[in-house]
Amino acid sequence: MIQAKCRKCGGSRLVFDMSRHGYNGYVCHEGVQAPDSELEPYRCPECKKDLFLVEIGMEVEDPEQFAEEVVAYEPETYAEEDYVDAFDWITISVECAGCGHKVRDWVNFETS
After folding, report:
1. How far apart are CA 101 and CA 106, in angstroms?
2. Which end of the chain is less packed: N or C, by CB atoms within 10 Å?
């Protein structure tokens, strides 16, 4: 699980949770959500600060394939436009806002 925390308001936002997101989480319901108590802050390996610019990329399943393989069997649960939630791959790159150190593909994870 990856959460982002706002420095201004202190609120947290869920960025990615393999138990809920991507094909395996969204369609197959695989995985167990990690409790917040098990999350650890990430710090820049260079300057040890914890403020980052984040770039997220996702590889999305073909809409027709999703309709054939998922919607056709569970039309009461899924609609054709849900294919975007059943993405196949996620990448997350981070850049330290303090020193500019970049970690490309900090997360590079197949979700199906």
Report:
1. 12
2. C
Q: Using one digit for the tens of pLDDT, what is the confidence trace for 68-102?
A: 999 999 999 999 999 999 999 999 999 999 999 99
Residue count of the chain, please give it: 112
Query: What is the value of pTM for the model shown?
Result: 0.86
Which pair of structure tokens corresponds to residue 100?
């500019």
Angle 33-3-5 from CA coordinates, rounded to 5°: 145
Q: Report d(CA 65, CA 71) in Å as an integer.
A: 9
